[in-house]
Design a protein that fits this description.
By secondary structure, the protein is an alpha+beta fold. The protein is built from four helices and six strands, in the order E-E-H-E-E-H-H-E-E-H. A two-stranded antiparallel ribbon has the order 1-2. The protein has a two-stranded antiparallel ribbon with strand order 3-4. The termini are far apart.
């Protein structure tokens, strides 16, 4: 097994120490990349109101207040929030929960922590209800 590398006219390198050093540097680099991703995503959404593809976040509602549906736009205005930009921020809890979740020399995981879990449960419940209502409508229409 080769532990030391000697290159002509250069310094001797202890490979054992160098190899042990690599995983910690990779972990540190991935961690920095993860934090950079978090900052960029938050900036893209909160400050520019853009999707991943660079398009402006928008509503599909026919009646609008800025970039939001009219009813939600009124609610946002009452809270003193902007309506000219969809920035996914009301309280800030959700966006502040977007962070580096895991970091090792093999991977970095960026995502939402615990704040989003009740929101996801609520979305799942609404989707389940919509499926049920759609099935009921189809049965009534005998499709």
């Amino acid at each position: 097994m080769i532990n030391v590398l000697k290159i002509d006219n250069a310094a001797t390198i202890d490979l054992t120490q160098s190899i042990q050093f690599v995983p910690s540097q990779i972990e540190k680099g991935l961690g920095l990349a993860g934090y950079s991703i978090v900052r960029q995503v938050i900036d893209r959404i909160q400050n520019r109101g853009e999707s991943t593809g660079g398009l402006k976040l928008d509503t599909y509602a026919l009646e609008r207040d800025g970039r939001y549906s009219a009813p939600y736009g009124r609610k946002r205005r009452a809270l003193g929030l902007r309506t000219d930009l969809v920035n996914l921020t009301v309280t800030g809890d959700l966006v502040n929960d977007y962070k580096v979740l895991d970091n090792s020399y093999e991977l970095v995981t960026v995502g939402f922590g615990e704040t989003i879990q009740p929101i996801l449960r609520n979305i799942r419940r609404h989707i389940t209800e919509m499926r049920y209502l759609t099935l009921q409508i189809l049965r009534l229409m005998k499709l």
